[in-house]
Amino acid sequence: MVVRNTLRCLQAAESRVRALEERVGDISVLLINEGPYPAGEVQRVLQVPVLATLPYAPDDARVLSDGAEQPRRFTNSPLMKAARTSSSLLLQRAALRRARLGPRGPRTAGGEVTRAR
Fold first, then answer.
1. pTM
2. Cα separation of 61 and 63, whole Å?
3. Which run of H or of E encompasses 11?
4. Residue 76 lies in a domain
5. I need a labelling partner for 28 at 20 to 30 A (CA). Which of 5, 42, 76, 115 fits?
6. Based on the structure, what is the number of domains in the chain?
7. 20 part of a folded domain
8. For 13-68, how does the pLDDT look when each residue is reduced to its tens digit (9 = 90+)?
9. Other CB atoms within 10 Å distance of the CB of residue 45
């Protein structure tokens, strides 16, 4: 779940975190560092781990979300550096979860279910 560390966002996230946990099990948070609350406080309030923190960088984020023009040195911006690190952590977590859940049924080499109805 992606959450900003502002009071309003944290209050809104509390119930959503609980609902997600009921549906999918353990979750973690990707924190957007816009507000005053540090990752440890967010973790304590939401009672889920903060997996990584991205800087609040709306101009750089617009490149990714809206296709805004890419500024010079965009790939080396703090947002993109943090995104690279965060993506590695997210992939590791997904692989661990996938391994823990195990296979759900017969699959072909391409990952398609072979006995779909």
1. 0.77
2. 5
3. helix 7-24
4. yes
5. 76
6. 1
7. yes
8. 999 999 999 998 889 999 999 999 999 999 999 999 999 999 999 999 999 999 99
9. 16
